[in-house]
Each structure stands twice: as C-alpha cells, then as structure tokens.
Design brief:
50% of the residues lie in helices and 12% in strands. It is built from 18 helices and 13 strands. Strands 2-1-3-4-5 form a five-stranded parallel beta sheet, with helices on both faces. α1 links the parallel β1 and β2.
C-alpha cells in the first residue's frame, strides 16, 4: 500500500508542483490550503508523513499549530516544515515542537522526494525493530497488569544521546539503547557490547556479564560516568555485517583509504586498518553513500539496512565481521524507581529482560534471513562472507587498540582481563565441543555461497 503524504500549502502553484512531484514517486498525496481544512482532514485519517508551510493566509503560525495537533494525535509521526521562514529562532521552534526536519523554500523537488523517502524509512525502522516492545509486553503480562511500560519512540521525550542522563535524573523511568552510545563518556562502555571477541559471540558476552564478573565491572563503569541507574541486558545480536561497499572487497589493500561509517571502539579498530572512519547517525548513512561523502558503511543487520535503503546505493553486501561481533541492548532503570518497587516487581523486570533475550533472538533470525533473501532476490544484491584476510587484519587492529587503551586506563584493562579469563576457559569448551555446523548445512543444501533462499 502506498504511503500517504499530506501537504499543507496555501500557494496554489507551489501546492500543485509538490503534489505532482511526490505523486510521481508512488505516494498517495492529499493537499490542504489552510489550517481548518487540514485539521478536519486529520479527524478522518492521519497521514504517514506531513509537510507543512508555516504561514497560511493571514495565520502567521498556522503550521506550528497544525504540528502541535498532529503530534498530540501521533507523537512519532514524521513532520517536515517547508517554509520561507528561515530565521534560526523559527528553526529552533519547529524542531522543539517535534518536527523531523525544517527545510527552506525554494527547494529541489527531487531533494524533497528523497528526504520524504529517507524519513519514512527511518520511521519504519524505528517502529518495526523496537526490541524493547517484547520486554514491555512481558512485564505487563507477568505482573498481571500491575506494571505497565509506556513505550515511547526516540525523540518523543529525549534524544538517543540523552537517554542515560534522562533515566538517571528521573526525567524518564527507563530507557532502551546500547552501551556504545555512552562510549564518549568512557571508552570502557564499548566493552559491554561492542568490544573485542576473544572467540565470544554476544551470547557468551552476556554469560560473562551475569556469571563471569561482568556485572560488577559494569556497575563500576556506571558509577565512573555518573549514571544512577540499574541496567539489564537483552537481545544478543548476531555479528554485524562488515557492510555495504561499491565493489566486492577481499584484500586489506581494497579497503585502505576507504571512507567508512561505523561507531564506538570500531572507529579505532578500522582506523588502525587504514580506513578513514566517519561517525554518522543511521538516517544519514544512505544519503552519505549516495553523495560520495563515504565509500562504504555498516549499520546493523539486513532488516535495518534495507529499511534505510542501502540496497539503492550499493549492491555488494559483506556479512560477518569482527568490528562489532557481539552487541546487545541495554535497559537502564532509574535506581530510585527500581528500589521503590516490590521485590516481586523487581524480579519481573529482571526476568522479563532475560525472557526477551530468547524471544527477540528468535524473531531476529526469522526477520534477518527473510530480508536477506529479499535483498538478494528482489534487489539483486550480491552477498559475500567477509574474507579471512580482512578478518585477520581486524583482529590485529583490535590487539593494537586494546593494547593502547590498556596502557592508558587501568580500569579498562581490568575489564579486558576479566573478559579474557572468562573467554579462555568457556570458549575452549564451547569451540572444541561445537561440530562444524556449516559442514552439516552444506551436506544438505550445497555450497553455502550458492544456496538460493
């Protein structure tokens, strides 16, 4: 079904041009000329995205009023202001109201269409991949409705970068993010999800967290950065792909000097490999590749990557990488709020996070594989396993990066030593005990690189 776009613009010529250009891109477009028409239309049906002029007839702030009304009905609805009012105070006002973008007139119709597409992909990705929804439902079910988590989209109350402080100060009771987002406060944050592997996947890192001494070190790290919350972990993610390139890369020399997007400690690792790293938020990755700002990029998985439209700017997708091979989500809970709960309700929060591990992991395997098949079959994306040469160089880079941090920060080294002690023992058993599952797969289905799904 085509996405429904609403345009509120009082100039008939501009309105007609916008409608024609956006309709040609396959959207269903409804246009209104004033505030009253728009509000009446929203009573009948809300759009998937709204484009608002601010000055409508004699009403100089009509667009702001429409935005307030829209977001009171649907807090996560993407809103774009498209206006001749370009003073900084107007831009600030629009963004504070909750608009996703503030664009000046005149504007390229091609750029406007591309921006609409980008914001819709981001909105869809947020809605479909919100792993916190499983935990929220389980908490409600397990408590018989006594505990309810009001799950809000990112940006509805605070930005992603503000979650840790917002939870600590009580602006919100809980949050949902990954520890790499507070890497800037202390590099040790990345060790709780985006650190070196030592043979471990995210499953084993979570085992270290709960039964290998990681929990105590995590709490110490929270105290060092000033976060006042209790944290739970869930959803052990499969290894993240090396990502999207303009060609099939197999040698280290193929990627040296390449402008590449990633985040966290992986920025240090890939810089050590000779790549030129750019840290960009998810919504900016695809446009950056399209314009040549970057040559290659990773985000997370086939589902999220395809929702951001990476298949439109690259046809060479490389799976399996050590740059971020064991990440999981963090659920911070305000410490005062948590301590005021009954022991039974505290146990429900903890065990709901544990249960969500299994639920989200199972869902992820189904979704990621289905979307990988769609990338291959519908979008003709070439899918490769990252070469052993590149993987080996990543491990060498990890050794250098971790060695440098260990020299500078004794606490960082303390965490690394704990992980190594756990991995050496646990992974000795696990890796020697695991049969070669790929051998069994290929025995039944043939060479994995040639299997059609």
């Amino acid at each position: 079904m085509a996405k429904r776009i609403v345009i509120v613009e009082d100039d008939p010529d501009q309105r007609s041009n916008y409608v024609d250009a956006i309709t040609k891109k396959g959207y269903e477009v409804t246009a209104y000329s004033n505030r009253q028409e728009a509000l009446s239309g929203f009573e009948r049906e809300l759009p998937d995205l709204a484009i608002l002029d601010i000055i409508l007839g004699d009403e100089v702030d009509a667009g702001f009023e429409i935005c307030r009304d829209l977001l009171s009905r649907s807090a996560s609805l993407p809103v774009i202001f498209l206006t001749e009012r370009i003073d900084e105070i107007d831009k600030i006002s629009g963004l504070r109201l909750g608009a996703w973008d503030y664009l000046p007139k005149p504007i390229s119709l091609d750029y406007l269409a591309e921006r609409i597409s980008s914001l819709l992909r981001i909105h869809e990705a947020r809605g479909q991949s919100h792993q916190g929804s499983s935990t929220a439902k389980m908490v409600g079910d397990m408590s018989g409705g006594e505990l309810k988590i009001d799950l809000q989209q990112v940006g509805a109350i605070v930005k992603t970068s503000e979650i840790g402080q917002a939870v600590s100060s009580g602006v919100v009771d809980m949050g949902h993010w990954v520890t790499a987002y507070w890497y800037g406060k202390n590099a040790a944050a990345s060790l709780f999800g985006t650190g070196p592997s030592y043979g471990m996947s995210s499953q084993e890192v979570m085992g270290w967290m709960e039964y290998g001494g990681g929990r105590k070190l995590y709490d110490e790290t929270l105290a060092k950065v000033g976060f006042d919350y209790v944290g739970f972990f869930h959803m052990p993610m499969p290894a993240q792909p090396f990502g999207w390139f303009k060609k099939h890369v197999t040698k280290v020399s193929d990627v040296k000097g390449m402008k590449y997007r990633t985040v966290g400690l992986a920025t240090n690792v890939l810089t050590a490999m000779g790549m030129v790293v750019r840290q960009l938020p998810g919504g900016e990755i695809q446009p950056a590749m399209k314009t040549g700002l970057i040559d290659a990029a990773e985000f997370n998985n086939p589902t999220s990557d395809s929702q951001f439209g990476m298949q439109d700017v690259s046809k060479d997708y490389h799976l399996g990488s050590f740059h971020q091979s064991q990440e999981m989500f963090e659920i911070p809970v305000n410490k005062k709020t948590y301590n005021n709960l009954s022991p039974a309700h505290q146990a429900i929060l903890k065990n709901a996070a544990y249960a969500a591990n299994t639920d989200n992991y199972f869902k992820a395997l189904v979704r990621y594989s289905a979307d990988l098949a769609k990338l291959m079959n519908e979008h003709k994306v070439n899918v490769y396993q990252t070469s052993d040469e590149i993987l080996a160089e990543q491990l060498k880079a990890w050794d250098k990066v971790i060695g440098d941090f260990n020299k500078k920060d004794p606490f960082f080294k303390k965490i690394v030593d704990s992980q190594k002690t756990y991995a050496k023992k646990v992974m000795k058993y696990l890796l020697m005990n695991q049969p070669n599952y790929k051998l069994a797969y290929e025995n039944e289905f043939g060479n994995i690189n040639k299997v059609k799904i």
